[in-house]
Amino acid sequence: MKPLLAALLLSTACARADLVIVQHVDGSGQSGDQTIRIKGDKSRTDLAQQVSMITNGASGEVVTLMHAQKTFLKVTAAQTKAMMEQMKKLPPNAEPPKLTATGKKEKVGNYDCEIFTSSFGAVSVTYWITKDFPNYKTVLEQMEKMQTGSISAMGKGLMPELKDFPGMQIKTEMDMGGKKVSTVLISAKEENVDPASFEIPKDYKEVNAPGLNFGK
């Protein structure tokens, strides 16, 4: 569930307002609106009322809710720590890919955008970026904090640093060896998020994922 922003990923920092991001996702078997709610160190990503992912960026715990089955899969903070310890044994990740300006411009919705690209291995990404998005610097600052959390640390080097973006990403198209996933931003604004959004429904049953038995 990488497309934007990737999904998603938080850390403890100075006090900040809640943030709600809505975008449309297409590709890789996904099609529909995706909503990301951020409050403090927690985020919740909902995709077309099918699946929700709740992330605690400080501890690294991730809960995936599968609404049709009323089940949930939990990756505990201990499991996240174990995964990070395993990754430390691997060669260090490369530096984050840099944004490259194409010199091309295109209008997406109501926004005049400049087109940039980046690449990492077999993954190439095209970004439509605008400076016309309301309050985009504040939104990017909050999103940048998401890149420093426990979960994001495992994906370091896969996407450019948000501080390097010259504006707001209105559209993103990721090409993974011929498989494309595109996201189009609908809205991003400060809005109160209910703390109850990050709770597991009492009638949902926990399921286990094969192979996810370390770190318990």
Describe the 3D structure.
The chain is mostly beta strands and 216 residues long. The chain has one domain: Lipoprotein localisation LolA/LolB/LppX (outer membrane lipoprotein receptor (LolB), chain A), CATH 2.50.20. The chain has helices spanning 77-88, 136-146, 150-154; strands at residues 4-7, 19-27, 30-39, 42-47, 51-56, 62-66, 71-75, 100-108, 111-120, 123-130, 168-176, 179-190, 205-207. The protein has a 12-stranded mixed sheet with strand order 8-9-10-11-12-2-3-4-5-6-7-13. The longest helix has 12 residues, at 77-88. The model is unreliable at 1-15 (pLDDT under 50).
Based on the coordinates given, report the CATH architecture. Answer: Clam
Can you tell me the CATH class? Mainly Beta
What percent of residues adopt helix (DSSP H or I)? 10-25%
User: What general form does the structure show?
Assistant: globular
Question: Major beta sheet, specifics?
Answer: 12 strands, mixed
**Tally of contiguous helical segments:** 3
End-to-end CA span? 24 Å
Instruction: Output the radius of gyration.
Output: 17 Å
Q: Determine the structural class based on helices, strands and strand pairing.
A: mainly beta
Order of helices and strands: EEEEEEEHEEEHHEEE
Number of DSSP strands?
Answer: 13
Q: Are there runs of 5+ residues with pLDDT below 50, and where? A: 1-15
